[in-house]
Amino acid sequence: MLQRSPLSLRELERETGVPKSTLHAIVHERPGAGIEALPRLIPWYEEELRRQEGKLEDPADIAILLNRMFADLPASRRRRVLKRMLDAAAAACDEQKTPRPRWIDDLRAALDAEEREAGG
């Protein structure tokens, strides 16, 4: 998400209020980096997405969007609803004989992995 921004880390720091050192750790994918900054970064990123033209293709973009759509559901129910939505999107692509966007299978795999880790 931050890697695709045309802004410098200093500019991102000014826009988001997240320290440059935290942004640097996120960009360089340090494990656990930036978890505490997510509540400030997600709204900024959503606004950036609204400004862009074109379709959403990155799994992170779709995950943020879907989690916002179903934020009021408990996590266990949200996972089931997300799986059904992904299955419906995959079926629609298959039915129309169009290539599936990569985010469908990526997000489904992430949800399956999350479920395995949770022991369900």
List keywords for this structure.
mainly alpha; 6 helices; 120 residues; globular
What does this structure look like?
This protein has six helices and no strands. It has helices at 9-16, 20-27, 38-51, 59-69, 75-96, 102-117.
Task: Give a brief rundown of this model.
Helix content is 66%, strand content 0%. By secondary structure, it is mostly helical. Helix 5 (75-96) packs antiparallel against helix 6.
Q: State which percent range the strand residues make up.
A: under 5%
Kindly state the number of beta strands: 0
- Structural class category: mainly alpha
C-alpha-based Rg, rounded: 16 Å
Order of helices and strands: HHHHHH
Measured between the Cα atoms of the first and last residue, the distance is 29 Å
Low-confidence stretches: none
Q: Count the DSSP helices.
A: 6
Mean pLDDT: 82
Topology:
Layout: H1 9-16, H2 20-27, H3 38-51, H4 59-69, H5 75-96, H6 102-117
Helix pairs in contact: 4-6, 5-6
